[in-house]
Write a structure and sequence with these properties.
397 residues, single chain, D-Amino Acid Oxidase, Chain A, domain 2, alpha/beta, FAD/NAD(P)-binding domain, 35% helix, globular, eight-stranded mixed sheet, six-stranded mixed sheet, 10 helices
């Protein structure tokens, strides 16, 4: 049989939100793109609230807006975050710090968006995109050469391109094919997520408590009187939370939020999920004619909510560098990819160090450490210039 060969400028492996956004961006830049995914199935539209949500910052917003995706979101299901309050536990002497949009002279600090809402908006845009081929299949081999790179699929067909982008998640097949080493560490925690109706209005405020042996509890605002729980809980506690009825979970949360949010009631239909939390640091974001983006390039602790935002930052940087390359260089030219690697190195490393350091610091129950961190939070809260810089970094600016 004759092998079917398909030629593209760029081939993207993985069809999560970051991969789809990259595909739309490169198509709008005038390039011919293939998006390889194992299934072309589109998640059905559902009125139920998705327990998986993202806190998207201004970089993510700007990328999606430039691709006409932001306006395609169901705005009634997007909640702006106007303030964030962080507290180092429930003790009277617990440190605390607050960030607000008004103080930063902006309208929103971030936006809480459901995974399904974002996915449906991206799928709609992809259906109308020119020069974008949605290829269904499983890659079995990747071959890198000086003048191009190719993917062989399980059905024997081949995709040839100048650049392969690995957007295939934390267990990236593309990364593995390139023999890119990585540093890996489990936090011994799981992210437990669930949605609740709250008795009192949340006023667009996100709350976070660092509770030592209990982990990190965050309540993020959803539209209406609803909040999304993200509890980074030690494995044993997470298993217990998953076994218990949700009424027990609301009782656990009451001591943290009953005064500010009133009684919590699980959003119907009741749903709770958990996913493991790990730190994954690949030793490189590039290889010969290959670039990694999103979780394939970095996985951080979710305590700051910036895992997805780092992925959108990757897309923005790679798009800009590819679009502004010299005429004699193609998309996968070594110089082009080196520029991408340099452009992302500082932000990715800083976010990895920050989230990992905070997870370690607030995970300690040693009295001297507890005193230092509480004093540190209170001290930072009194310096508006430093807080402004922290907000600016969180926004991606």
């Amino acid at each position: 049989m004759t092998t079917q060969i398909h030629q593209y400028d760029i081939c993207i492996v993985g069809n999560g939100a970051v991969g789809k956004t990259a595909a739309l961006g490169f198509v709008q830049a005038g390039l011919k793109v293939a998006l390889l995914c194992q299934s072309a199935a589109v998640a059905p539209v559902s009125e139920h609230w998705d327990v998986r949500v993202f806190a998207l910052n201004h970089v993510a917003h700007d990328v999606l807006a430039s691709l006409k995706v932001w306006d395609a979101l169901d705005a009634s299901r997007v909640a702006p975050v106007t303030e964030m309050r962080v507290k180092g536990g429930l003790a009277a002497d617990a440190g605390q710090i607050g960030f607000d949009a008004y103080g930063a002279r902006i309208d929103e600090l971030a936006w809480i968006v459901e995974d399904k809402n974002l996915g449906q908006a991206l799928d709609t845009a992809i259906r109308f995109a020119q020069n974008l081929s949605l290829v269904t299949g499983v890659a079995t081999a990747l071959q890198q050469k000086e003048d191009g790179v190719s993917l062989t699929l399980a059905d024997g067909s081949e995709l040839h391109a100048g650049l392969i982008i690995g957007a295939d998640g934390a267990q990236s097949w593309v990364r593995g094919q390139c023999d890119i080493g990585l540093s890996y560490r489990s936090y011994g925690q799981k992210g437990v997520v669930c949605n609740f109706e709250c008795e009192k209005p949340h006023f667009g405020i996100a709350h976070q408590w660092f509770v030592e042996e209990q982990g990190i509890i965050a309540l993020l605002p959803l539209p209406g009187n609803r909040v999304s729980l993200v509890w980074s809980a030690p494995d044993e506690l997470a298993a217990q939370l998953m076994r218990e009825p949700l009424s027990a979970l609301t009782d656990r949360l009451a001591k943290y939020c009953s005064e500010i949010l009133g009684q919590l009631t699980p959003v119907l239909p009741e749903e709770i999920k958990a996913f493991p939390l790990n730190l994954i640091r690949p030793h490189s974001m590039i290889a010969q004619r290959v670039a990694l983006i999103g979780d394939a390039a970095h996985v951080v602790h979710p305590l700051a909510g910036h895992g997805m935002n780092l992925g959108f930052g990757d897309v923005a940087a790679l798009l800009d560098i590819v679009k502004n390359r010299e005429d004699h260089r193609d998309c996968g030219d070594a110089r082009v990819l080196e520029r991408y690697s340099r452009a992302r190195k500082e932000e990715v490393m800083l976010m990895q160090l920050t989230t990992d350091g905070l997870a370690r610091l607030f995970g300690s129950d040693l009295a001297p450490v507890r005193l230092i961190r509480n004093a540190g939070l209170n001290l930072l809260d009194r310096f508006p210039v430093i807080k402004s810089k922290l907000i600016s970094h969180a926004m991606g600016r």
